[in-house]
Design brief:
- This protein is of the alpha+beta class and about 325 residues long.
- The chain has nine helices and seven strands; from the N terminus they run βαβαβααββββααααα.
- A five-stranded antiparallel beta sheet has the order 1-3-5-4-2, sandwiched between helices. Strands 6-7 form a two-stranded antiparallel ribbon.
- The C terminus is likely disordered.
Length: about 325
């Protein structure tokens, strides 16, 4: 269930009020606001000149304003963007109920309300003058009576949930735990939130780029290995072809030696076989690849003419 968001900022000087007015009137660019939708923003409460309205009220106070005293309080009311879901009716109902609840609770202290629809989540900027009527009838500022201390802040959140949230299907936000052993949840300003979000996005981008670089390196390694494997297979194929050719050549030599023996006698055949054996030994020494090949000596077959049979060591 979506939660209602209610937070305040205490304004101590007219300069603070002017800063709020400038932001709400989009006098300066707002990073998370869409300029094309700024025309949708509206002012349901106020004259349009927030600084002049605050000054006019301060001028009616009895007595001077305390140094560093709170002259106004800005309250922001909103909910998650996905709760609004660009639903116009929800926006109107939310705006209307917020203003009604603020007037019921604070009366004429509410002097300004600006609805922003140019950001992801519609929200209201409301300004209250924390005046108090003293027993003697004098009107003075007293922000502490309305917003001073943890108890008042809890009461404010309870009020927002009951007076506004319960009417619209929004629940109260998670209460802050005031325990020195537990880190309490704290509000993060839009600027700090955007900075943190930018850092997170930047870290994710760097991580993604590192992963892409690593993936590219792995792909390059795979291509290199595939090329090396292809080259090795080609060399193996050529070597096998060469060894097969050598085996055929050997067989032809054996046949030729046998033929020499039949024609010129066994002694000549044996001498020729010894020369061929020495040639094969030299070949093995000069070409290490040849050592991997086992030259099987074929079994001598009985000659048709026994008188010309060649004897002696094989060519293995």
């Amino acid at each position: 269930m979506a939660q209602i968001v209610c937070r305040i900022e205490k304004l101590h000087t007219i300069a603070d009020v002017g800063r709020v007015a400038g932001h709400n009137d989009r006098a300066h660019p707002v990073p998370n606001a869409d300029p094309d939708r700024a025309r949708l923003n509206r002012l349901p409460v106020g004259s349009g000149d927030l600084v002049a309205d605050v000054q006019a009220i301060l001028a009616k106070l009895d007595g001077p304003v305390r140094k560093n005293g709170v002259i106004a309080v800005e309250m922001i009311l909103t909910a998650r963007a996905d709760w609004f879901a660009r639903d116009r009716l929800k926006v109107v109902m939310f705006e209307r109920r917020c203003i009604e609840a603020l007037r019921e609770r604070y009366g004429e202290r509410l002097i300004y309300a600006k609805t922003h629809l140019d950001e992801d989540a519609p929200h209201l900027h409301c300004v209250l003058i924390p005046t108090e009527v003293k027993p003697d009838g004098k009107i003075k500022l007293n922000a502490r009576a309305l917003f001073g201390g943890p108890t008042k802040m809890r009461e404010l959140q309870d009020w927002a949930a009951e007076a506004i949230g319960s009417r619209l299907g929004l629940e109260r936000g998670t209460p802050r735990i005031y325990d020195h052993e537990i880190q309490p949840r704290r509000h993060m300003s839009p600027r700090a939130y955007r900075a943190a979000l930018d850092r997170e996005v930047s870290e994710q981008r760097l991580e993604r780029e590192a992963m892409e670089a690593e993936r590219g390196a792995l792909i390059a390694d795979r291509v290199r290995l595939d090329n090396e494997i292809s080259a090795f297979r080609e060399k193996s194929r050529l070597l096998e072809a060469a060894l097969a050719e050598i085996a055929g050549f050997k067989q032809r030599l054996i046949d030729a030696i046998k033929d020499v023996g039949r024609r010129f006698g066994s002694d000549t055949g044996v001498a020729l076989a010894n020369q061929v054996r020495e040639l094969i030994r030299l070949t093995r020494d000069d070409f290490p690849e040849y050592k991997a090949y086992t030259c099987a000596t074929p079994t001598p077959r009985q000659s048709q003419a026994p008188e010309h049979k060649v004897s002696g060591p094989s060519l293995g």
